[in-house]
Amino acid sequence: MADYTIRNAVVEDCEHIYNNTKDLAIFLNPAYPSKLTLDTFREDGFGTNPLFRCHVAEMIDSGEIIGHTLFFPSYSSLTGKCMYMEDLYVSEHARGKGIGKALFKRLAQLSLKEGCQDLLWETLNSNKTAIKFYKRHGAVDCTEKENSHCFRLDGDQMKKLAET
Would the N or C end of the chain have less CB density within 10 A of its end CB? Predict the structure, then answer.
């Protein structure tokens, strides 16, 4: 039997999830640091109109949060309702124990229950461990298969475009 449980995050988990997302951002791309404050994160995820939800992996004996997924609904004009996974994070000391798979599985179950046709996410090309993990669980690399590219306008570029 697992010594952890997967559950919906509550506001009391917010600071821990926030700190993990900052650690993940630094690990994945130190050149693109998080600009998000804890207060904004708390309001965006646990306020009156939440923009995202989370699942957490919690140790049964200690209550330690050892991983999380952060996700939100999305939409495709080709397939309909989708779920977008922003983060899948497992604490370094807890990796290799099936926790990432358990979090990923729980999100897939929720996505199906909510009528989603796809579960979408991105990972950096340099994160080879994550790419292998996702492919092992049936994910298709859209960059390889569909020759698609993901783009972003950061705040400054959005302002520039909006003002032209």
Answer: N
